[in-house]
Amino acid sequence: MKFNKDVTYVFAMGGLGEIGKNTYCMMRNDELIITDAGVYFPGDELMGINYVIPDFTFLKENESKIKGLFITHGHEDHIGAIPFLVTMVNIPAIYAPHQAAALIRKKLEDRGIKYNNVYAYDDDSIYKFKEFQVEFYRVTHSIPDAHGIIIKSKDGTIMTTGDFKFDLTPIGPLPELHKIAKLGAEGVTLLMNDSTNAMNKGTSNSESLVNNALEQIFTKNPDRRIIIATFASNIYRLKHIVDTCKRHGRKIVTFGRSMENNIEISIEGGYIKHNEVFITPEEAKRMAPEKVCILCTGTQGEPLAALSRIANGTFRQIKLTQDDIVIFSSSAIPGNALSIGRTINKLYLKGVTVYTNSDLKEIHASGHANEEELKWLFQLARPKYLMPFHGEYRMLKASADIAVKCGMPRENAFVLSNGDVLAMKDQVIKYAGHIHIGNNYVDGNRVGDVSNSVMKERKTMANDGIVVVIANIDVKNKKLIGTPNVTTRGFVLVNDNIQLLKKLEGMAKWAINDKLKTDADYADIKNEIISTISSYISTHTGRRPIILPVIMDIKKSVKS
User: Fold this and answer.
1) Measured distance CA(70)–CA(107) in Å, rounded
2) pLDDT of 206-249, one tens digit each?
3) What angle separates helix 522-541 from helix 498-516, to the nearest 10 degrees?
4) Partners of 160 in the beta sheet?
5) 351: how many CB neighbours lie within 10 A of its CB?
6) Which of 124, 291, 458, 550 shows the smallest number of beta carbons within 10 Å?
7) Pairing of strands 546-553, 479-489
8) CA 184, CA 187: separation in Å to the nearest integer?
């Protein structure tokens, strides 16, 4: 699409229609502002993929316009893509609150990326550019230093909430409601709001309630070992777990690299006190179990996380007993319910006592605003237009519906997809078109090696298996030696399907001999094998496995 002069454009590269990958852009003339750069954690549908990040092609093509990347807070779905972004695109500076800045520096250091332009901002920081002015306001979330961002241009004021809730009895500082109200009085042209919990009625639980619930569990079970799984980035949760252990005379041993990194950074930043309660796994083995609290990752049933390995009995340093208590101080991220359920079932089979958020509602408090809190936001900010973000489509739609209940005209609430572009001119906003924003798959530490076609092949192999046809050919004399050998993996049981495999061998033999009568090359022979047997397999089995022909030149003894 065409971008016109003296117009402010707003679009998402990720975060719309999904939980994660939050990356948003504001562009006017020759300046571009980015807010957040997060990852999406895939479920079983993306086999072997560690993260999904936005395709940064647009940013690469416009990198001369980029003035900076502004971060709302330090969760992975908002900062996880930064190591990949800064190696692909020239980002002149990253501006982040103190906790997030420390996490970003650690993340870059761990990956061996040299980048020295990470700057920490506070509540009163202001950054001025030719086309934009960027300011901040404090919000309440499950991590310290969470902020909303205000981007002002000649065309109007954009207010983004980041991830937020209105917790009036928080573990940390109160949200800056007065700044939101002041902005509303001055005029908010476009509000971009967190929609994760828009479908939840009422208000979210206060983090202080979780503190009380955990206190009760510790008080009632002084003679049992306690294992707590929570999000490593939920710093306020970690803080009151540490405080609770200190009061009850327990030592803490941590498992999970992300958990260890977050605690280390939080101790250095002064968010977590009592670092003397932390001990090593070796020290924990020498202590009575009731004097130990294990703090680990794995709340979403991740196969390689500490809790999953503990539940499987494959974690060398921890063996469960029937006296143990396991607490899931978390909620399920959409799409992870099955993997979480598998982990919980394994824990029950070990005979341990398990507390989940469904059993005891107050052992987890979401960091996202429910319906009533969104109403407070809309009434305080009084935006002229709305672009809900951070949520699946149903959540974005629910957020827009709430805004309409609060008096916003339906046509002013834009429920968009990644790549949809809004144009703001003289405080009037219209839909302007669409730019292509794809995905990049991170497989291991490599980006871009796995394309959509590779993902399709992985899914095909998982669903229908693979059929390998191995043939020996005297290429010089154009002669097939013997009969092709057909073997399979994940397609059928060989011993139960001898006749089918013999039939496929015969068909492959015919296809090869037919092609050898012509001037066909290796590729032609392979394509003929695939086309000949694939239709037969589909017709007689209803399945479409990957067919992999392997041609051996017996004169050269080299695989083609």
Assistant:
1) 17
2) 877 777 888 889 999 999 999 998 888 888 888 889 999 999 99
3) 150
4) 149, 192
5) 11
6) 124
7) unpaired
8) 5
User: What is the phi-psi region of residue 8: left when phi exceeds 0, alpha when psi lies from -120 to 50, beta otherwise?
Assistant: beta
Q: For 154, how many CA atoms within 13 A lie in the half-sphere containing its CB?
A: 9
Edge-first strand listing for the sheet containing 385-386: 127-128, 133-138, 147-153, 156-160, 190-192, 385-386
Question: What is d(CA 40, CA 194) in angstroms, rounded to the nearest whole number?
Answer: 16
Active site residues: 194, 368
Is 324:349 a contact under the CB 8 Å cutoff?
A: no
pTM of the model: 0.79
Q: What's the token pair of residue 233? A: 């980035």
CA atoms of 322 and 336, how far apart (whole Å)? 26
C-beta of residue 69 within 8 angstroms of C-beta of residue 37 = yes
Taken as a whole, the chain contains a residue count of 560
Distance from C-alpha of 143 to C-alpha of 97, rounded to nearest angstrom: 11
Instruction: Return d(Cα 330, Cα 105) in angstroms, integer.
Output: 26
**pLDDT, tens only, 356-402:** 866 555 677 788 999 999 999 999 999 999 999 999 999 999 999 99
- Asked if 560 contacts 553 with a C-beta cutoff of 8 angstroms, the reply is yes
Cα–Cα distance for residue pair 35/290, rounded to 1 Å: 45
Pull the structure tokens for residue 283.
């020290």
Reading the block at residue 374, the tokens are 């969104």
What is the 3-state secondary structure of 392-420? CHHHHHHHHHHHHHCCCCHHHECCCCCCE
User: How many Cβ atoms sit within 10 Å of the Cβ of residue 415?
Assistant: 20
